[in-house]
Amino acid sequence: MFAALTSTARTALRANVKPVARTLNLRLTAVRFASTTRYSTDHEYVHFDDATNIGTVGITDYAQKALGDVVFVELPQVDSEVTQADPIGAVESVKAASDIYAPVSGVVTEINEQLNDQANLLNKDSEGRGWLCKIKLSNPAEFEQLLTEKAYKAHCDGESE
């Protein structure tokens, strides 16, 4: 849009944006992903959407690297109730098998069906398209008790020493 404007019009538009933003009490803020993702010490993550009270759960990049090539994923059942720290599934790789633990309590609302045919999505994009399930949190305070990104990185650094 700016390219079609004359330089005088662009200058006038820029000059008026700040006063309008102040009048409307608008703040330009960064996307809030950093504060909406937390981690368990068992290497699961939760991307939490506080508008829907749903957390997207998966294994971290650190976990998928430790496991190696993933060949099978066992997921929880939709509508099943899960309790924080209880096993909800498993991941099998060419190197090992590992349980998946619920990082939060709630009801499973959705599972990533793609993993049935493409378990290696965990290796390709574990914290994106390789998510495991979505949980409607019964106790959102549990999310706040999980590790921040900085604390999780420190936890991982301590494990690798």
From TrEMBL:
Which compartments does it reside in?
Answer: Mitochondrion
The protein's UniProt keywords, in alphabetical order, are:
Lipoyl, Mitochondrion, Transit peptide
What cofactor requirement does the entry state? (R)-lipoate
Q: Which Pfam families match?
A: GCV_H (PF01597)
Please list the residues that carry the modification N6-lipoyllysine.
Answer: K95
Per UniProt, the cofactor note for this protein states: Binds 1 lipoyl cofactor covalently.
Give the record's GO CC terms.
glycine cleavage complex; mitochondrion
Lipoyl-binding domain span: 54-136
Which GO biological process annotations does it have?
glycine decarboxylation via glycine cleavage system; protein lipoylation
Q: Which residues form a coiled coil?
A: none
Q: Respond yes or no to whether keyword RNA-binding is given for this record.
A: no
- Which family does the record assign? Belongs to the GcvH family.
Subunit arrangement?
A: The glycine cleavage system is composed of four proteins: P, T, L and H.
Its biological purpose:
The H protein shuttles the methylamine group of glycine from the P protein to the T protein.
| Name of the protein | Glycine cleavage system H protein
Q: Which organism is it from?
A: Naganishia liquefaciens
